[in-house]
Design brief:
Elements (H helix, E strand, L loop, with lengths): L1 H25 L4 H18 L3 H16 L17
Helix pairs in contact: 1-2, 1-3, 2-3
């Protein structure tokens, strides 16, 4: 039963990551911001291999920031922040 829950979570996270990548590509932001956001998504994707639930929470926080117009400052190195 737990295996089915993991598969469902995996499918949901994969769909959300795909949607997030599409949204980031479509944002009207400077290229440095887009690169920083893409890096954050790649970090979340890598983290999902170890902890699906934590990756889903991180993705939720990142998408909430994007929805609120809070983007990383590419000059500050925030794009490499792995705590998203």
């Amino acid at each position: 039963m737990e295996r089915d829950g993991q598969l469902e979570l995996y499918d949901r996270l994969a769909a959300r990551l795909k949607e997030a990548h599409t949204r980031v590509r479509q944002l009207q932001v400077p290229e440095g911001v887009r690169v920083a956001l893409t890096r954050k998504l790649l970090v979340i994707t890598a983290a999902s291999k170890h902890d699906l639930a934590a990756a889903e929470r991180r993705l939720g926080r990142l998408m909430a920031d994007i929805d609120a117009g809070r983007y990383p400052d590419p000059e500050s190195g925030a794009g490499s922040d792995t705590s998203t």
